DNA sequence: CTAAAAGCTCACATCAATGTCAGGGGCAAG
DNA sequence: CTTGCCCCTGACATTGATGTGAGCTTTTAG
């Protein structure tokens, strides 16, 4: 599969896929002429990267968490675990923040409804 | 209360507070010499803005949602309601994305634990 | 009164992911 | 062979909130 196919299957632009590779988030084998080739499993890999990016992680953080290219070893695994639990906490906190913002928004919506109801009753 | 006090009470930098004002998210009364002065209620206002910004809303969106300076009128209220429900949906979706990313992270964490356990058992 | 601390405006810098354009190959079908 | 489509690298642009610094004025504390 070439980069255009992977792009079509994941929704990530070709530009983004090259960027992911540049950041160490994705690997590719190259044809003799230099074109990138991917396997089916890379589709899942890109989806994971997309999910983490959409969750507000930086590419550097994702690279630290997911040993995609480097040989896994114990020290690296322990360090990755540390980063993962830190990021997990950050995600939980972000979820809480979003929920709080949604609550605040619900209050505003209610206020606005009340305003409109009053406005209609008072005779516009 | 001057800008430094408001900054201390909200954690927003002076720069950010001026930026919020520039974007129409915050109002201030000015002393004859031009210094900004705030009331206690503005602390809450800044906290709301911070919550929405932290939730990934743009300042433009926040401005559209929260009629902070303009006279409220019916049309404006209806339009704000529309934007608010759109943003509420966006927030809910973002929460889902974050939860999905956290699940993916949990899987990685488990994989990593399994790897370390196996590594310890095999004799490092 | 004087010096430090805080404010003001304006302008430029930053970061990160992505868009976009330019200039140049590679490969398949007519 | 040539036309068309996909790919390559490299560079510059963008967006939005915030940092930072300069140059100057106001307020406050000693």
TrEMBL record, chains A, B:
Question: Which keywords, in A-to-Z order, does the entry hold?
Answer: Coiled coil, DNA-binding
Entries under PROSITE patterns matching the protein: HTH_MERR_2
Q: Which residues form a coiled coil?
A: 74-118
Q: Which domain of life is it from?
A: Bacteria
Signal sequence span is none
Q: Which residues form the HTH merR-type domain?
A: 1-68
What protein name does the entry list? MerR family transcriptional regulator
Native species of this protein?
Streptomyces longisporoflavus
Q: Source organism lineage? A: Bacteria, Bacillati, Actinomycetota, Actinomycetes, Kitasatosporales
